[in-house]
């Protein structure tokens, strides 16, 4: 006892002595960097697991060993019934039954969620039959993630009840939309309140297919267009979001019974009436519903703000406050999580034409600042009525991304002399749902501009702005039809450029300067009102901008240029909202026309 007391006193005396701060930091750093060495049994176990995965399954026992290893990796339990050649993978909220024959061949796989009957899973059965255990493990991980929820079993049961009630409401909303609008399968995908809904079955969560581009509908093998029916919608087609419930830090009141009332929609869009939230049909839980995106989506700042205003929950982002066009470029190139140099110039070769697109990152209605956005992978919400509005905003953003992404192909290029031989187009964002593209008239020294707008329902419209001296080229309906049909800027530009090449030419410019100035003043007044309306509708709340800051005076450009002819093109550029091109036009005023 005395020896132990003496030893403790020595230890106290040793550690009571103050140490230099540098020594303390060194000790802490060494402790953090120290790794626990794996003993021989752990290394041997990992080697055995690697060998087991590499071995070919030729017997029921080998199949069971593989399944037990996969279940253990995901924290699930497993047991084997040798009498019926059945292997069970279980958790608190679901179980999977794998049936095999005496030779180890998989006969059927069934999944039963909490309180539900087992459902056969043909896809999982085929995966195990070919021995693709890696893919099977991925499906099992996705299935287990559905129940990665906080709390005890009672809390998880309530969260699962909330998910079930949401799924039933979404299914009813989908049925009411089809009954009210009598829309086709493609119409349901592009405009439906829930998109094309595929109910949860086995290993698949409830899936909403919300957008399909025209290029997705082209069968590359034969070049024909896919014909979609309710029974023929490939899961891999277009963009999907899955419906799930996730644990969060705060408390939200989630419905635990279906809220859709009656058998008739409340409006022409098939929106149903909902029961009011009360303590009888809802419960407070540390969770919320989420729409998980198939791939991360670039979304503008204003769209994020509108979604958060609807749901009352901040949307989590992956990449925040980045260049919107840069995010779209990463998405198009399939390098969302990689650092990709943003290129302003992109070259495309089309039949009979070679295009060069200059991407302007500055938005006129965002105080001439860079157009910013974020990447999102999921959208949280708490009520089924939020889903139609969320999907409408996501579709609008997806159409915007698809259009701008259509002129971003391959690696970005810097300006070279080789690009000067191509048709030059400038693309400039105006708002998060509109932008302009401009190019030189193929027969005259003037600029043509097109304003593209995307409605709340994802409908596209284009308006062509020409100089008063240019002859008629085509109607706005023609541009809108092409945009809606192909959702591609290069295809639309190719058709419009060909129209301009065959359009009649006005050889004589108007000589009445006073009359031209009056016409330009009227055009500028209309444009000023349009820009101010767009600014109020889409710009974030800021102090009121003076009128001259939004739209400079056309007369000023006319005086600086020394004539009305150049001012006509300045007004044209103002109508398109491209101030940087106006500067270039003024800089080259002595070389364009002999005024």
Can you characterise this structure?
The structure is a single chain. This protein folds into three domains: 45-145, no CATH class; 153-347 and 359-405, no CATH class; 508-537 and 548-595. It is built from 19 helices and 19 strands. The protein has a six-stranded antiparallel beta sheet with strand order 6-7-8-9-15-10. Mean pLDDT is 77; it is low at 541-595. The chain starts with a helix and ends with a helix. The protein has 595 residues and is α+β, with helices and mostly antiparallel strands. The chain has helices at 2-16, 21-33, 40-54, 60-73, 122-129, 133-145, 153-181, 185-191, 301-311, 324-333, 386-405, 476-486, 489-502, 513-538, 547-550, 554-561, 564-576, 579-587, 589-592; strands spanning 77-81, 86-90, 94-100, 106-113, 119-120, 196-198, 207-211, 239-255, 282-300, 322-323, 345-350, 353-359, 362-363, 369-370, 372-381, 423-431, 434-440, 447-454, 460-465. Helix 12 (476-486) runs antiparallel to helix 13, helix 14 (513-538) packs parallel to helix 17 (564-576) and helix 17 (564-576) packs antiparallel against helix 18. This is Mediator of RNA polymerase II transcription subunit 1. It holds the Pfam family Med1. InterPro entries: Mediator_complex_subunit_1, Mediator_Med1. Residues 46-409 form the Mediator complex subunit Med1 domain. One of its GO terms (molecular function) is nuclear retinoic acid receptor binding.
